């Protein structure tokens, strides 16, 4: 038994009793009825009581006609209303239904079952409508919260509805866009129309579960907005779409953020140029074009700025960054629109030259690049000159990947750098073979250090007047397991370019110190035997170099003045400030400092002004040609005189004849070394050499 509370608004008492009688005859329901004869009273009761149904007469003492229905619905919009009247008017019934009545019954036609059925249906309809209204409100709130535009397109009659928000996304007011489908389709960016049509047609044909597409729309003022449209079609029994509805979301900000992230991922932050990732992508494209059409040749240029680290170290990273930015602009001015310039990292740049006729075109571009680089660059108060070493690799059928051609351009660049500054080299296969040999040598060198394959030989340094041994120069050799004894000319360049320079350099220093300690005890002289070691510039990068050496000399019980560092001018030039600071630290602990190969560098005299050295070593190239070339003899004499003037000792290298000895003595050269006195010796042979020449303890 269902309970139902009824409000009966009827001014005629007999008719009210008849209605109550009908209600008692409705099976399965128990009705509780409140009766009033005025509209105002009924409205008041709805505010005080909760009713399931209102039975309403339209002819009341205080109100009559359709207005009765209107006022009651306004007062109690959520309570279903059934009109009970004696007015059999279709027009009035229609109006009552529009004003919220659930049914319109003629009193004389009503009986118990009819009234019960009407009440049951009215309550159910009201509940359904209320649920629908709640659902619509929930959907409206969700749509408003999502800030999406709504569209609804009938495929039967081509009618379409666009919500106000849909129009606002495109910058229009609600009344500025008509409800026509072409208002949508004609605003799609032509670049995305095919993409849009494909996505929509796939869903219409049933090939996709829903319609979804990201595309551009032309908004007010030709502004371009990115939108995401989603939709779902309603189909008939045969699967044909009848209607499709969905949403449109403004995704412009997301697309802009994605574009920024993509740009940042593909471009260098400092110069704004493409980075290595985008460079490889463009190179892949050029390679694919070339495979399709071999006439579309291209070239890769690999550029490395000469001595950029020196500029960075001496002037600061801010100046270095500005230099890179300005150089990027100069490089870019030399290229065509279809070419790609990228910063590959540090001071390295890459260029893809598209649609060239051959190496000549690439070389022409390289010459232009070198020309713009040769012009001075003004940064703050500094005038800077710089050059670049450039490697060139030309497209060919042999290349199957971008990495291969970049590798070969890089190899050619290193060949150019070895040839001198401001040069270029075009890759050939012999360079690759040399690079592979270089790689294998570096691998073998790593193993050599681990397997103790390195040995130190010692060449005596002789007093030119007494020909007494003053000390030794430690010279590195490699006892290769299959190639035998390898001289440093074959591998020292590879060591310098690798991370092995530091470990091998310190290995030589430590071995030389321990050996010197032994010989100073075996052959006590006054002053004690000295040891000279030629070191890599990379050792000077460590802040604790002087401290580490001081500890080593103390552990070996060697007088500090017995140890001598030989430094080439190139080492000082490449890392000027770092090296000079380290030399100052070495000077403070009492180690002697010699300039090796003096006279062969770029600015020998200027470095004598920058720092106080102890000795100059004359390069063997001058000594060996003293007899044949007047210029060489004059240079040797000038170096000796310079040393004398500056209070520096002078050591001649590569002395091989008695004539050279006579000339050097006449020029007042202090010390010498060379095969005339002794070749470099294994440490086991040094003791025999010392004793054979009467320079041992018995002397």
* Poorly predicted runs: none
Counted up, domains total: 4
Bin the strand percentage: 15-25%
In helices, the fraction of residues equals: 40-55%
- Quote the CATH topology of the largest domain: TIM Barrel
What would the average pLDDT be, to the nearest integer?
90
Total beta strands:
29
Instruction: Sum up the overall morphology in one term.
Output: elongated
Report the top-level CATH class of the largest domain. Alpha Beta
What is the spatial order of strands in the main beta sheet? 20-21-23-24-25-26-27-28
Question: In words, what does this structure look like?
Answer:
The strands form 6 sheets. The protein has an 8-stranded mixed beta barrel with strand order 20-21-23-24-25-26-27-28, surrounded by 4 helices. Strands 2-1-3-6-7 form a 5-stranded parallel sheet, sandwiched between helices. The chain folds into 4 domains: 2-142, Rossmann fold, CATH 3.40.50.2300; 147-254, PAS domain (Beta-Lactamase); 266-427, Alpha-Beta Plaits, CATH 3.30.70; 443-690, TIM Barrel. It has 25 helices and 29 strands. By secondary structure, the protein is an alpha/beta fold. α1 (13-24) links the parallel β1 and β2 (29-36).
């Amino acid at each position: 038994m269902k309970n139902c509370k009824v409000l009966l608004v009827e001014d005629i008492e007999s008719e009210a009793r008849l209605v109550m009688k009908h209600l008692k005859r409705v099976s399965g329901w128990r009705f509780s009825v409140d009766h009033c004869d005025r509209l105002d009273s009924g409205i008041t009761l709805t505010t005080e009581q909760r009713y399931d149904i209102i039975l309403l007469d339209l002819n009341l003492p205080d109100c009559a006609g359709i207005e009765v229905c209107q006022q009651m619905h306004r007062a109690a919009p959520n309570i279903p209303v059934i009109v009970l009247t004696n007015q059999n008017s279709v027009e009035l019934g229609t109006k009552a239904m529009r004003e919220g009545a659930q049914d319109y019954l003629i009193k004389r036609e009503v009986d118990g079952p009819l009234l019960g059925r009407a009440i049951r249906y009215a309550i159910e309809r009201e509940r359904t409508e209320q649920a629908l209204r709640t659902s619509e409100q929930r959907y409206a709130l969700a749509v408003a919260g999502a800030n999406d535009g709504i569209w609804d397109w009938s495929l039967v009659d081509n009618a379409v509805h666009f919500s106000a928000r849909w129009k606002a996304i495109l910058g229009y007011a609600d009344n500025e866009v008509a409800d026509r489908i072409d208002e949508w389709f004609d605003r799609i960016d032509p670049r995305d129309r095919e993409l849009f049509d494909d996505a929509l047609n796939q869903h219409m044909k049933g090939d996709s579960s829903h319609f979804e597409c990201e595309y551009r729309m032309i908004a007010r003022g030709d502004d371009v907005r990115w939108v995401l449209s989603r939709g779902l079609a309603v189909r008939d029994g045969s699967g044909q779409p009848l209607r499709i509805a969905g949403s449109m979301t403004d995704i412009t900000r997301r697309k802009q953020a994605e574009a920024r992230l993509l740009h940042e991922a593909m471009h260098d932050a400092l110069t704004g140029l493409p980075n290595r990732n985008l460079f490889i992508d463009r190179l892949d494209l050029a390679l694919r074009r070339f495979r399709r059409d071999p006439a579309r040749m291209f070239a890769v240029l690999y550029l490395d700025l000469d001595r950029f680290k020196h500029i960075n170290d001496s002037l600061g990273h801010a100046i270095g960054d500005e230099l890179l930015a300005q150089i990027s602009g100069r490089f870019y001015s030399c290229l065509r629109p279809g070419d790609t310039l990228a910063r590959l990292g540090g001071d390295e740049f890459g260029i893809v030259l598209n649609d060239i006729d051959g190496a000549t075109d690439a070389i022409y571009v390289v010459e232009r690049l070198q020309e713009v680089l040769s012009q001075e660059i003004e940064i703050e108060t500094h005038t800077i000159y710089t050059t670049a070493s450039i490697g060139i690799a030309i497209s060919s059928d042999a290349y199957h990947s971008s990495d291969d051609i970049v590798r070969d351009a890089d190899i050619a660049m290193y060949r150019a750098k070895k040839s001198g500054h401001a040069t270029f080299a075009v890759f050939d296969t012999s360079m690759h073979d040399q690079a592979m040999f270089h790689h294998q040598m570096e691998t073998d060198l790593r193993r050599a250090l681990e397997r103790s394959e390195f040995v130190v030989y010692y060449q005596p340094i002789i007093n030119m007047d007494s020909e007494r041994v003053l000390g030794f120069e430690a010279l590195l050799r490699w006892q290769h397991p299959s190639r035998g004894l390898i001289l440093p000319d074959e591998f020292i360049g590879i060591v310098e370019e690798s991370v092995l320079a530091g470990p091998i350099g310190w290995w030589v220093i430590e071995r030389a110190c321990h050996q010197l300690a032994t010989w100073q005890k075996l052959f006590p002289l006054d002053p004690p035997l000295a040891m000279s070691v030629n070191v890599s510039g990379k050792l000077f990068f460590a802040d604790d170099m002087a401290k580490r050496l001081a500890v080593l000399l103390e552990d070996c019980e060697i007088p500090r003045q017995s140890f001598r560092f030989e430094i080439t001018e190139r080492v000082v030039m490449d890392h000027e400030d770092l090296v000079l600071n380290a030399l100052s630290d070495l000077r403070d602990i009492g180690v002697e400092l010699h300039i090796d190969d003096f006279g062969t560098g770029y600015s020998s005299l200027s470095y004598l002004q920058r720092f106080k050295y102890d000795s100059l070593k004359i390069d063997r190239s001058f000594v060996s040609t003293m007899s044949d070339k007047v210029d060489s003899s004059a240079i040797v004499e000038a170096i000796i005189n310079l040393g004398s003037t500056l209070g520096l000792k002078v050591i001649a290298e590569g002395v091989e004849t008695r004539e050279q000895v006579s000339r050097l003595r006449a020029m007042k050269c202090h010390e010498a070394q060379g095969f005339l006195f002794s070749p470099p010796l294994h440490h086991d042979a040094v003791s025999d050499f010392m004793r054979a020449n009467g320079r041992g303890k018995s002397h």
